[in-house]
Specification:
This protein is α+β, with helices and mostly antiparallel strands. Helices cover 47% and strands 17% of the residues. Strands 1-2-3-4 form a four-stranded antiparallel β-sheet. A hairpin with a 3-residue loop joins strand 1 and strand 2. The protein is rod-shaped and about 105 Å long.
Length: 161
Amino acid sequence: MENRTGRTVSGLGRALLFLVLLVALAALFVAGLFIWWLSVELPNGADRARKADTENNQRLIDAAPGKLRDAAADGVITAGEVVHALDPHWTAARTTQHLQISTYYRVDPSDPALDQCIQYTVSIPLNASSTIGRRDLQPDSPECKELSGHVPDTAPDTPAA
């Protein structure tokens, strides 16, 4: 096969030309993928992470009453059981009728409006049939603001209150 100048193009030359064109096409494809990722996926990544954190917190919140009931079955709820059932940010107070445990769930440190505060009330005597009540607290309430940075300094086997 001859080119325009009258020279013969060898099989090796054609293969080299094909290889160069293939590499250029692959580079264009990779560059296109990178531009798509920068314009579409990267901006949506923070929203997906925030949504996943919110869903995870909701699963924790939904599972908490059952975990607290299991913890109460032996007649005492320890600090370790509260951390396992809820979150490290909690406080507890005990009256003659119930144990009141408040907890703070942080979703996004840059957006405190997404944070959740929940107050659980466990009936006394503590046992497997204790009832668990739940009350949502306003994130800007004094109780909730106090909880946001509070991590009790108690041993895991210490009673919660």
